[in-house]
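Q: Methyltransferase, please. Structure only.
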Amino acid sequence: MDPSQRRAGVAALFDQLAPGYDQGPVPWFGPIGRRLVELTAPRPGDRVLDVGAGRGAASFPLADAVGRAGHGTAVDLSPAMALHLRDEAARRGTPVEVVVGEASPRTLPAGSFDVVTASLVLFFDPQPAETLAGWMALLRPGGRIGLSTFGPNDPAWTAAEAVLLAHAPAQLLDARTSGRAGPFATTGSLTTLLESVGATDVDSHDEPLVVTLPDADAWHAWTMTLGLRQLWAAVPDTEIPRALADIAAALEPDRRDDDQLHLTQHVRYTTATRP
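A: Structure for Methyltransferase:
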């Protein structure tokens, strides 16, 4: 697939997801975005950029960290996501400049940001090394970049996703097929990717995030608000009841004494410096 077509596909997917994206009762993008900002360590007065901002899981913690003396910019390919982000920034009274499009030296001033974050974004890009090099060029010397991607999840969660992946077409634009291979496979491969574009002081490590849900139906409803919605769309309507039954069986080992499913996803946080 041509890179421009793939990026257009990403934008279309997130336009579709935007109304309900990160709006449910399951803490997911918010904790990941806040932790990424904490590890990237912006300071009051910094100029900061959040790439693939979505509905602001990292954008708002960044803006809070730099305060009124700083400046926050949020960029997203999806016009619908950008619209919701602008509305939320206005509701909160948080000054965030929202831009629709790509983040690169072609669209933003090079060497002008103290911090760049990209939470659960880079694995969607068809040219991750080239794109990452562009993000590094947006940093001033000594500036910091922070990425979050996916590490492994627990065996029950993996088995549940395997039910959906059995129906997945080739080239699916989802982190489950693109975000756990190649440069995203391990902390070591991500370190190598960052170092290949000139980054120094690279740290890449995994941290667990637990999602608590009552049953497979709740998992279905929640994943329909994520990129996993594409996997559900690939399941024929006649096979959805069987898929749900198989997923329920797969998730059952994660049920605990409180009668809730406790699903563990490891999130990979990678931070580095532009020399």
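A: Brief note, in case it's useful. The longest strand covers residues 139-153.
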